[in-house]
UniProtKB/TrEMBL annotation:
The lineage of its organism: Bacteria, Pseudomonadati, Pseudomonadota, Betaproteobacteria, Burkholderiales. The keyword Methyltransferase does not apply. This is Chalcone isomerase family protein. Coiled coil: none annotated. One of its GO terms (molecular function) is isomerase activity.
Length: 191
C-alpha cells in the first residue's frame, strides 16, 4: 500500500513519539512519597501488587527499597518501606488482630509475643478507609516505624517484631505468595 509521503511521515513521527513516551515511562521510577524518600533517600519501587480476600480487594501494596536493595532478615539487612493503600474501611483493631494471626501462622510469634505485639499495634494502627495509606518502615536490628498518609504515627522498637511483621508479606511461607513475588520483582540492589 503506497501512502503519500506526508501521511507516511505523520505515521512515522507518531510511532516514534509513542515509542519515546513508552520507553521514558518504563525507564523512569515514579517518585517516592516524601515520607518514604526521607526514610530511604533515594527510594526505588521494587514491586507492587494487590491483596484480595474472597475476591474483594483489601489493599494495594508497594515495596520501596534503597540503593542496596532488599535482603530481608539477613545480617546487615537494609531499610525498606512497605506501603499499603487500603481499598475498604477497616478497624485498626482488626488490622492488628489479623497481623498477629498471620505472624503466628508463620510460626514467628509465640502466643505471648502475639498478644504483646497486637496490643502495641492497636495503639498505633488507626481505622482506615478507601484511599488511606499505611506505611511501615523496616528499621534493621531496631524495629518498625509507621506512617498514616505520610505522617508518623508510631514506632515499635523491637527487632523481633519488625522481622515478624514484615514476614507477613515477604517470608517465603506467606499466605499471599503471588503478592510476595510481585513485591520482590525488582528488589535487587541498584547499581
Amino acid at each position: 500500500m503506497n501512502l503519500p509521503s506526508m501521511q507516511f511521515r505523520r505515521y512515522a513521527y507518531a510511532g516514534l513519539l509513542a515509542t519515546c513516551v513508552l520507553v521514558s515511562a518504563y525507564a523512569a521510577d515514579p517518585a517516592a512519597p516524601v515520607h518514604i524518600q526521607k526514610e530511604l533517600s533515594p527510594a526505588y519501587p521494587a514491586g507492587s501488587g494487590s491483596f484480595r480476600w474472597l475476591s474483594l480487594k483489601i489493599y494495594d501494596a508497594q515495596l520501596w527499597i534503597g540503593d542496596k536493595g532488599y535482603n530481608g532478615d539477613a545480617p546487615g539487612a537494609n531499610k525498606f518501606a512497605l506501603d499499603l493503600r487500603y481499598a475498604r474501611n477497616l478497624q485498626g483493631r482488626k488490622i492488628a488482630e489479623a497481623s498477629r494471626d498471620e505472624m503466628q501462622k508463620l510460626g514467628i510469634a509465640t502466643t505471648q509475643q502475639g498478644a504483646e505485639w497486637q496490643s502495641k499495634m492497636e495503639q498505633i494502627f488507626p481505622d482506615v478507609h478507601d484511599g488511606t495509606h499505611l506505611t511501615g518502615i523496616y528499621l534493621p536490628h531496631a524495629g518498625a516505624r509507621f506512617y498514616l498518609d505520610g505522617k508518623a504515627i508510631g514506632e515499635i522498637a523491637d527487632p523481633a517484631f519488625a522481622l515478624a511483621f514484615f514476614a507477613i508479606w515477604l517470608d517465603p511461607r506467606t499466605s499471599a505468595p503471588q503478592l510476595r513475588t510481585a513485591l520482590l520483582a525488582g528488589a535487587a540492589p541498584r547499581e
